[in-house]
Amino acid sequence: MQRTRRSLFARLVIRVAIVLAGGAAILMTAAWLYARAAADEAYDRLLQGAAIQILDSLVVEEGRIAVNLPPSAFELLGLAPRDKIFYRVMAPDASTLTGYEDLEFPVDIANARTDVLFQTSRFRDQPVRMVAASRAIADPSLGGWAKVLIAQTIEARQELTTELTTRALVLVVVMSLLALGGTILAVRYSLRPLDALGDTLRRRDSQDLTPLAVDVPRELSPFVESINHFMRRLDDRLQLLQRFIADSAHQIRTPLTALSAQVSLINEDALSENDRRHLDRVKNRASELARFTTQLLNHAMVIHRFDSVQLSPIDVVDVARKAFRAAVPITIDPDIVVSFEAPPEPLMVLGDGLSLREAIVNVIDNSLRHGVVSSLAVRVIRRGDFVLVEVEDDGPGIPAQDWAQVTRRFVSSKSGEGSSGLGFAIASEVATTLNGALAFRERTPETGFTVFLELPLIDARSNA
């Protein structure tokens, strides 16, 4: 059983979407890291500028360091209005000149003499970004380095990081969607050769087993070559089957005919009554075997022809007349009234003449063997857009509850009376293949039991 899986288009699009999603995640991580570094750099410059301005404002007066905090330093820090500012100015002896005495830099600030130090820490249970800067005091009595510590909460940094990341996210999402849309169009266009190949196979006639001659991309060439190889093998098998059917028909019918001829040469007058009964049984069984073998071969022939023969317009009237002549034997009981009725004009259907003739022959033969009492009528009539081939007899007919069963192979309503159960099966398969049907009509006081084939006319098929 064929397993239905996701389409190649869906799988390609899903895989590309996964790659794009992974790339977008990497880009977003890089964007977040870049945004955070940019925000730190921007606000670190503000902290550094404020610290340097405070250091520049330190003066020595009367042997003491005076602190005159410049307003511009706090104006710089005021660019982040939601953040809190903590500062501490320290004398060379580490005493606090002004600011928060409990503000401590988390690492040794000895290196602040040559460079400005930055550190992320916590102060009073708040995350802060700190800067430490130093300035040499030239006064001999106060010789040393004055230091400035400034701490700022990080709300503004986080807001800037979020804003930059959001902008990058919007850009990445838009570009990813555009890339995915472009990928979908590209994949759809790239898979068009597959659709064209499938359409070529769908439109191809079922009897056409010649190799495919289509232009496909190089990647599809092995697939097309495999299809062509399979069709060549299938064509060889069908030819072998056709030869087998022909050989079987000859090899089986010949000995059966010879057996029947040999049995008919036996002198029944020299046999006893019991032997004559046995001889009659042999004749009946030989006749049944010959008929059953013929029906089996005809059934195989019908199936094979519909798989290998191109359907063409045929005249149902002509086919029915030939079937009537073939099915009604010359040795029929003279007390049986046999008739054939058909319109003078041809009634054309799309089909195979040999298969349709076998179907009509089987219906007539079934009526002669199991239905006819004194009359048999075969009629070809037109009813609307359909042509009907009716076979009517005056026998008891088939019960309505058995109609659905008797069209199946090896199912018969006359079990034990030499019926193979293939006649109606052959006729039904032929009618179904030709877009028609095999149906039954109950016996009435005015008409007998009727079996009919209903087939659409060619003009009706074209109009449909």
From TrEMBL:
Top EC category: transferase
Gene Ontology MF annotations: phosphorelay sensor kinase activity
Subcellular location: Membrane
UniProt catalytic activity: ATP + protein L-histidine = ADP + protein N-phospho-L-histidine
UniProt keyword terms in alphabetical order: Kinase, Membrane, Phosphoprotein, Transferase, Transmembrane, Transmembrane helix, Two-component regulatory system
Originating species: Agrobacterium albertimagni AOL15
Alphabetical list of InterPro entries matching this protein: 2CSK_N, HAMP_dom, HATPase_C_sf, HATPase_dom, His_kinase_dom, HisK_dim/P_dom, HisK_dim/P_sf, Sig_transdc_His_kin-like_C
Entry-linked CDD domains: HATPase, HisKA
Upper lineage: Bacteria, Pseudomonadati, Pseudomonadota, Alphaproteobacteria, Hyphomicrobiales
Ranges where the HAMP domain occurs: 188-239
Coiled-coil regions listed: none
Name the UniProt record assigns to this protein: histidine kinase
UniProt xrefs under SUPFAM superfamilies: ATPase domain of HSP90 chaperone/DNA topoisomerase II/histidine kinase, Homodimeric domain of signal transducing histidine kinase
Pfam families: 2CSK_N, HATPase_c, HisKA
Main location: membrane
